Amino acid sequence: MYRVEDKYALSQLEMELMQKRIETLLPADHSSGRLGYQISSVYFDDLFDTHLHDTVDGNPIRQKYRIRIYNHSFDTIKLEVKSKRYNRIAKAASEITYGEMRALLAGDTVPCSGDPDDPRTAFNLAIRTRGLRPKVIIAYERKAFIFQSGNVRITFDRNIRGSDRVDLFGDPTLCYDYPEDEGVILEVKYDELLPDFIAQTLENNAMWQTANSKYRICRELYTF
Fold this sequence. Notes:
The protein is an alpha+beta fold.
């Protein structure tokens, strides 16, 4: 199922002000805790950097392949294929083992069901036919808020950073590089309609809608 995804860029100060407004209206995601949580993802691309070029060129229909962990822990390892059609997104995800993660990072395939909706199947096909390989690690801290009606999820992603040491994915001692613009990305995701009281709360002349993805921002640290 495709959902709406709108992204906004804002400064650290505006983030603090907006987050205070949001947290008076919406509950935090149960996994957020008081300060939020850290996300670390290793993103894959093919021999021609198709997914990077699609992002840079503004192709409205594109995909991303990634493996994601939380708070430097391998207790939960998610394999994800994210598809984008204009401002709508869909995500196929499943949990994988540590061994499967290491195999994919090495460019090997893993056992799969053959179901086209299984991200293992998509990864295996891309590895075999397009040379899909890990390219960059992206990490940041996230604070998330939810509203059940309309399946609304609002996230503040800050301290965005990257590393091309994909062999060290998950290592808490890994040193990262930071993009010049250390602003915050606010993402608003919902199924069909955004409730008016949330839309009105988000109205702020100091933030602007952006098409820049964290993947592009961090890949450009090493590619261009």
